[in-house]
Amino acid sequence: MKIICVGRNYRKHAEELGNKVPDEPVLFMKPDSAILRQRDAFYIPDFSSDVHYEAEIVVKLNRLGKRIQSKFAHKYYAEFTVGIDFTARDVQAKLKAKGLPWEKAKGFDSSAVCGKWLPVGDYDMSNLSFELKKNGQVVQSGNTSEMLFSIDEIIDYTSQYFTLKIGDQIFTGTPEGVGPVAHGDILEGFVEGTKVLEVKVK
Ligand code: ZN
């Protein structure tokens, strides 16, 4: 499976990192080795001293498809959750400055964390609130209605380039409020007030 991520999909987050608001989705990928295996603990890698959390709505594909039109995209995923796109911001800044690809900053081991999967049918995916707490304090609070490109538009756009397969995950971008993690932090993700994710930083 593959993990496709969307960058700069919320205006205020694009702005907080000094990026332009894009006119088409910004895509990057993580390898399947990026999935956090031991689900409750994230170890800060030794090559970074500025790893950031990015809380995002993640959808899981349940059908194979390519060139999926936006109006049919909802038929291609049945589960979603809150995930964290861990980002080595210092590594990314160096790569961005040189115009190089981001993989080392975004695709390292354990950088993709997903919470408990929820059935799409029980929720309004175009108006879904989610939150990340760090040590009990809300640090990110988003709603899918604020996305620059909706989940269905992302699937349409992505599938023009990449065949989507069963089990693929799409991280749909983070709202503002990203920040660093430190040893001992507890990160908790919520959808509509329900906790679906907890990770301890080590
Ligand atoms: Zn992200």
Chart the SSEs and their pairings:
Layout: E1 3-7, H1 11-16, E2 26-30, E3 41-42, E4 51-53, E5 55-61, E6 77-85, E7 87-88, H2 89-98, H3 103-106, E8 112-114, E9 118-119, E10 129-134, E11 137-143, H4 151-161, E12 169-171, E13 179-180, E14 186-191, E15 194-201
Parallel strand pairs: 1-12, 3-15
Antiparallel strand pairs: 1-2, 4-7, 4-13, 5-6, 5-12, 6-8, 6-9, 10-11, 10-14, 14-15
Zinc ion is lined by residues 5, 54, 56, 85, 171, 173-174.
Would you kindly provide a written description of the structure presented here, covering whatever features stand out?
With 202 residues, this protein is an alpha+beta fold. The protein has a single domain, classed as Fumarylacetoacetate hydrolase, domain 2. It contains 4 helices and 15 strands. The strands form 3 sheets. Strands 1, 2, 5, 6, 8, 9 and 12 form a 7-stranded mixed sheet that branches. Strands 3-15-14-10-11 form a 5-stranded mixed sheet, with no helix packed on it. A 3-stranded antiparallel sheet has the order 7-4-13. It is globular, with a radius of gyration of 16 Å. The structure holds zinc ion. The site of zinc ion has 7 residues, from loops.
